[in-house]
Structure to design on (657 residues):
């Protein structure tokens, strides 16, 4: 039996997918479904959109009418999930930062965050990694492989 | 005879110094990726794909394929020495491999894993060599309805074999189909689901989805489930890696079992290589005269799954090279690479690009030998990779993912999408939605839509064309049976229970 939290996740994901299915069908119904030369651009999305609505409602229904979950089972690793999401947030924030500071600085900051905050290593280790990793990337990608890296306002 | 001629031609291509170099590099990178827990071949191929754009396609595909099957070799090292699968398909190797290592037979366990991988990998490639050309010839008689039916069968198998919940697998697949529809319709130039974003007019790049769903998600999951494990001592000297005669004798059926089970399960779209490992382990235990030793360091319990996960990669190449249908995430990357280089993977690939097709097949024979030579004497060296701190490794993976996504079109919007797909993959993993159907739904979305629309255009809107042609009808019937099989099993089970009471 899956834990209650997971089942709530199923309910939410089912509802979200049902919403997405409705959006797909409503958008696709504005485009040609079947024309004189064959199916139009709305044909395929309407087909899978309807299937998505039906199946996600089955998922929601199954969750709503299922018997209550048994107590116990594997406890969710809340701390682990929080750290993973924090890492993702740092990664996502690095992207707009790259527009202004460029890849090298933004990636250095991300590396520092991963080493010091996520893995709780010393600040000295974080600084060393934040300097050496971007330097290695600069050497491998633009210099050796001639692959472009995002450049910021300051030209690097 | 045609296959032998083609293979000889392929050896000529694969043995060219530059291609040989890419083969060795691919095998080397694959072994490293296989050894590192939390980084799979699909993510690696996705990250490295943009870097291969300037390479000769034959060399590029030889290297990427080397990463794919090389990872299967490397995965066993981590399983045996650390009791942690380096690669998803090496989960079963932990059971008996780690037990052998704990009993002081780590060298023999690594040797058996390398020999089983070599034997099964080679048998798998021999079957691929002789089965791919006739299958491709058969596929030449296919038209849009047959391809539609074939893709439906592929997706049905993906859904059936992808995870615990078929419903979630179908929903993930539908999500993949939707993502594939975003952009401009190829038939009418109608923009679809772009939400006013001009960056989405050309559609979403496959690489962005693949790197997000595989690499970023893998990093997040690894950070969440951080586990500390102790590396067992690595034996030194080639002699210590040779199994005893008794151990080899015990493994002789396991080599064959792993080869055949792995290859045929590998051909099924959606059947993860962990499936072939589990099945071959189950078969081995079922036919063994000493099943009580399984789980306590039985060499055949190590040889069968290790062989199966290597033969599996040759099996997965069969639908990719003959029909242009990928069997899983890694082969979807290879398909994408071929398309990006301007090839048409499918039945015409052998005729139109014999250098690439036969060069790839021949390189797999060479790669297997390279991997055997690399893995036996160099295991102590490779094992040192496990000492790389994870905080450095994950930072590098995040950095390479950014570079990979950005290099597709030099647009930071793609990197933002990469982050979004990383989060999507993580949420899917937490809610037990399989990601393979999403990726394959995205890869097959466009060709599937094209096939169904072309078929209905051919018949002027009459849907009976999809079932009127015999081959298409049979394939669709098989797909229907596959999709209904859980329901059929449940009904049969209920009937039996009623009869028993």
């Amino acid at each position: 039996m899956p834990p209650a939290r997971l089942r709530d996740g199923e309910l939410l994901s089912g509802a979200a997918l049902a919403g997405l299915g409705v959006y797909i069908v409503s958008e696709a119904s504005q485009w040609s479904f079947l024309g004189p030369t064959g199916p139009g651009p709305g044909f395929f999305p309407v087909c899978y959109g309807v299937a998505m609505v039906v199946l996600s409602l089955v998922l929601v229904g199954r969750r709503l009418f299922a018997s209550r979950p048994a107590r116990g089972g594997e406890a969710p690793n809340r701390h682990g999930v929080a750290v993973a999401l924090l890492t993702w947030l740092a990664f996502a924030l690095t992207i707009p930062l790259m527009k202004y500071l460029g890849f090298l600085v933004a990636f250095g900051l991300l590396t520092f965050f991963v080493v010091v905050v996520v893995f709780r290593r010393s600040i000295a280790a974080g600084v060393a990694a934040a300097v050496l990793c971007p330097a290695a990337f600069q050497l491998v990608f633009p210099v050796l492989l001639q692959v472009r890296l995002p450049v910021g306002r300051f030209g690097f | 005879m045609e296959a032998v001629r083609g293979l000889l031609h392929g050896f000529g291509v694969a043995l060219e110094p530059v291609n040989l170099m890419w083969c060795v590099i691919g095998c080397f990178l694959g072994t490293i990726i296989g050894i590192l827990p939390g980084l799979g071949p699909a993510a690696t191929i996705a990250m490295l794909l943009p870097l291969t754009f300037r390479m000769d396609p034959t060399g590029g595909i030889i290297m990427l394929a080397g990463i794919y099957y090389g990872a299967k070799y490397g995965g066993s090292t981590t399983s045996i020495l650390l009791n942690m699968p380096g690669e998803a398909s090496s989960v079963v190797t932990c059971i008996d491999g780690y037990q052998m290592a704990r009993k002081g037979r780590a060298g023999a366990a690594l040797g058996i894993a390398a020999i089983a991988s070599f034997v099964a990998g080679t048998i798998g490639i021999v079957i691929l060599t002789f089965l791919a050309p006739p299958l491709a010839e058969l596929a030449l008689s296919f038209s849009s309805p047959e391809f539609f039916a074939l893709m439906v069968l592929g997706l049905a198998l993906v859904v059936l074999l992808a995870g615990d919940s078929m419903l979630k697998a179908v929903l993930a697949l539908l999500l993949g189909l939707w993502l594939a529809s975003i952009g401009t319709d190829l038939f009418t130039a109608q923009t679809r689901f772009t939400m006013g974003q001009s960056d989405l007019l050309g559609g979403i790049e496959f690489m962005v989805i693949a790197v997000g769903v595989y690499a970023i998600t893998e990093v997040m999951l690894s950070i969440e489930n951080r586990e500390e494990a102790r590396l067992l001592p690595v034996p030194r000297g080639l002699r210590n890696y040779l199994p005893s005669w008794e151990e080899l004798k015990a493994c002789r059926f396991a080599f064959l079992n792993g080869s055949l089970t792995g290859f045929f399960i590998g051909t099924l779209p959606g059947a993860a290589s962990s499936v072939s490992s589990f099945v071959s382990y189950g078969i081995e235990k079922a036919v063994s005269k000493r099943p009580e030793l399984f789980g306590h360091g039985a060499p055949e319990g190590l040889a069968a799954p290790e062989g199966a996960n290597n033969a599996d990669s040759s099996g997965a190449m069969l639908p990719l090279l003959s029909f242009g249908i990928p069997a899983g995430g890694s082969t979807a990357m290879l398909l994408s690479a071929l398309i990006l280089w301007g090839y048409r993977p499918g039945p015409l690939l052998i005729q139109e690009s014999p250098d690439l097709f036969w060069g790839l097949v021949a390189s797999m024979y060479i790669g297997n030998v390279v991997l055997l030579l690399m893995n036996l004497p160099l295991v102590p060296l490779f094992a040192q990779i496990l000492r790389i701190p994870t905080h450095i490794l994950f930072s590098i993976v995040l950095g390479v993912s950014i570079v990979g996504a950005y290099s597709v079109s030099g647009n930071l919007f793609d990197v933002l999408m990469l982050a979004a797909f990383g989060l999507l993959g993580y949420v899917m993993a937490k809610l037990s939605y399989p990601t393979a159907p999403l990726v394959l739904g995205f890869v097959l979305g466009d060709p599937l839509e094209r096939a169904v629309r072309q078929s209905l255009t051919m018949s002027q809107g009459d849907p009976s064309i999809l079932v009127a042609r015999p081959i298409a009808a049979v394939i669709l019937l098989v797909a229907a049976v596959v999709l209904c099989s859980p329901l059929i099993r449940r009904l049969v089970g209920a009937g039996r229970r009623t009869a028993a009471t």
